[in-house]
Design brief:
The chain is α+β, with helices and mostly antiparallel strands. The chain contains ten helices and eleven strands. A five-stranded mixed sheet has the order 7-8-9-5-10. Strands 3-2-11-6 form a four-stranded antiparallel sheet. The protein has a two-stranded antiparallel sheet with strand order 1-4. It starts with 6 loop residues before the first strand and ends with a helix.
């Protein structure tokens, strides 16, 4: 029987447990610090519910992804077919399908994440483990509330072909975010090196509701380089870039990275202790 989950996490609950104790984690939202169960935070009811795409919207999406190298087109169009299959199906699939898809991806990544959190980086040398991890990372990058709400409406002067004038561009945005997830994961797996780095300072890593991000990305501009930072726990993080030469992170670097997490968050910042969140304004 297929699980029908109403509380749909946009940050994987297992990931949040890396900062938790007894399935509870310290959170900060709008200057308020509170303790929450990992089940009840970074989630919304039916967050991944999809709306059916019209023929024009599907045509627009297909045309968008029929560009670039052929292997990229094949990958992107295949991901798009998955999204369309869920969004345009009947029954409960539009409400639960994407949640179930993400659960499948998470189940394949859980053993890799568990190994990394124990300090075992040999798992990154296994090809299938790296693939499973990168697929999850690509989706975690784009499946967040911040990503979902990042769509900027086009102004009236934007030149849109008449046949696409009636398209719901918010729906198009949600579909492209799903497709880009696989593209990000593939690029990370095939072109970047993954490195487990240790935090040997007295300051713990923080994380947030946008837990993975390209440090080289500048809003509104195409990133020419990739340097993905992904904290795994208060003491460990994953770095994905070409030839990463960092092994250990000191106190000043931890504070810089924590500041990035705070500034890059959408609503929520997570920490191992209440004190770490209460001191955010003075420490990052």
């Amino acid at each position: 029987m297929t699980t029908k989950t109403k509380k749909q996490h946009y940050v994987w609950e297992f990931y949040l447990k890396g900062w938790g104790v007894n399935n509870q984690v310290w959170c900060r939202r709008n200057e308020k610090v509170f303790l929450s169960s990992t089940e009840n935070v970074a989630q919304e009811r039916y967050f991944y519910e999809t709306k059916p795409l019209t023929d024009a919207e599907i045509e627009l999406l297909r045309n968008m992804f029929r560009k670039g190298p052929m292997i990229n087109q094949i990958t992107n169009l295949s991901s798009l077919d998955v999204y369309i299959g869920i969004a345009n199906s009947t029954g409960d699939l539009p409400r639960y399908g994407l949640e179930q898809y993400h659960s499948m991806i998470e189940s394949k990544a859980i053993s890799v994440m568990t190994a990394l959190r124990s300090g075992d980086d040999t798992v990154l040398k296994d090809k299938q483990s790296k693939i499973d991890l990168c697929i999850y990372l690509g989706h975690q990058y784009t499946r967040t509330k911040k990503s979902k709400n990042s769509f900027v409406p086009l102004n009236q002067e934007t030149d849109i072909p008449e046949k696409y004038a009636g398209c719901d561009l918010m729906k198009v945005h949600h579909a492209t975010s799903f497709v880009f997830a696989a593209a990000i994961g593939n690029a990370m797996c095939n072109h970047l090196d993954l490195k487990l780095v240790k935090n040997e300072s007295s300051t713990n890593f923080l994380t947030c509701d946008q837990p993975i991000y390209n440090l080289c990305a500048v809003p509104g501009k195409e990133a020419k380089e990739s340097s993905f930072y992904f904290p795994l726990s208060p003491s460990l993080a994953l770095w994905a870039k070409k030839n990463p030469n960092i092994e250990v992170i000191d106190s000043s670097n931890v504070k810089t990275l924590n500041s990035f997490m705070v500034n890059n968050s959408y609503e929520l910042v997570f920490a191992y202790s209440e004190e770490e969140l209460s001191n955010i304004s003075s420490s990052v």
